[in-house]
Amino acid sequence: MKERIEVLLSAEQIDRRMAELADELYQEFGDEQVELVCALKGAVVTIVDLAKKMKMPVTMNFMSVSSYGNSTESSGNINIKMDLDADITGKNVLIVEDIIDTGRTLKKLKELLISRNPKKLKLVTLLDKPDRRVVDIKADYTGFTIPDAFVVGYGLDYAQKYRNLPYVGVLHFEE
Ligand SMILES: O=P(O)(O)OC[C@H]1O[C@H](OP(=O)(O)OP(=O)(O)O)[C@H](O)[C@@H]1O
Ligand code: HPA
Ligand SMILES: [Mg+2]
């Protein structure tokens, strides 16, 4: 099967939306320090590009959680492979995600971080695919709402490929 990628969101569109999100987040947090928490690996590109546009002091921390492996379907089991290396108690925390699909990853992550008593916990996602949701979870800030299609690029992978594309595209399989 040949893989073909159809552009859904251009690099320019994403860059413009990132700047808008950074402004919205400034309304939320003002000049207070924000701990950006990113779920590896998909959200790495989003956290870096968003952080560059944020005007308040930020720190970045990383966790590794996985549910998809080499498939286009979530397994339903979320595996925490690496935890944060800092205490978030009493801090402003912003979870940065690349995509909310079934919602399982983010729901689990949010529950875990809330249990650590941050001062404020908010969620930002580059992409939201609401048609696929199986658990009740909403982002506080969303870059783009997208249709039910498997997308790659800008951090998102298929079998670990395509994360480096500067745009988001729909992955098609052809004979
Ligand atoms: O809403 P869900 O159905 O849970 O799917 C969303 C999650 O799936 C992907 O991560 P994945 O587990 O594939 O790991 P990766 O970030 O390393 O690609 C993506 O980066 C999100 O974290
Ligand atoms: O559409 C997607 N693409 C890549 N990874 C994903 N993880 C959840 N949904 C997706
Ligand atoms: Mg993935």
UniProtKB/TrEMBL annotation:
It is an enzyme of class 2 (transferase). Pathway: Purine metabolism; IMP biosynthesis via salvage pathway; IMP from hypoxanthine: step 1/1; Purine metabolism; GMP biosynthesis via salvage pathway; GMP from guanine: step 1/1. InterPro entries: HGPRT, Hxn_phspho_trans, PRTase-like, PRTase_dom. It holds the Pfam family Pribosyltran. Its EC number is 2.4.2.8. It comes from the Bacteria. GO terms for biological process: GMP salvage; guanine salvage; hypoxanthine metabolic process; IMP salvage; purine ribonucleoside salvage. GO terms for molecular function: guanine phosphoribosyltransferase activity; hypoxanthine phosphoribosyltransferase activity; magnesium ion binding; nucleotide binding. Its cofactor is Mg(2+). The keyword Membrane does not apply. Residues 11-158 form the Phosphoribosyltransferase domain. It is found in: Cytoplasm. One of its GO terms (cellular component) is cytosol. It catalyses: GMP + diphosphate = guanine + 5-phospho-alpha-D-ribose 1-diphosphate; IMP + diphosphate = hypoxanthine + 5-phospho-alpha-D-ribose 1-diphosphate. Keywords: Cytoplasm, Glycosyltransferase, Magnesium, Metal-binding, Nucleotide-binding, Purine salvage, Transferase. Belongs to the purine/pyrimidine phosphoribosyltransferase family. Purine salvage pathway enzyme that catalyzes the transfer of the ribosyl-5-phosphate group from 5-phospho-alpha-D-ribose 1-diphosphate (PRPP) to the N9 position of the 6-oxopurines hypoxanthine and guanine to form the corresponding ribonucleotides IMP (inosine 5'-monophosphate) and GMP (guanosine 5'-monophosphate), with the release of PPi. PANTHER family: HYPOXANTHINE PHOSPHORIBOSYLTRANSFERASE (PTHR43340:SF1), HYPOXANTHINE-GUANINE PHOSPHORIBOSYLTRANSFERASE (PTHR43340). This is Hypoxanthine phosphoribosyltransferase.
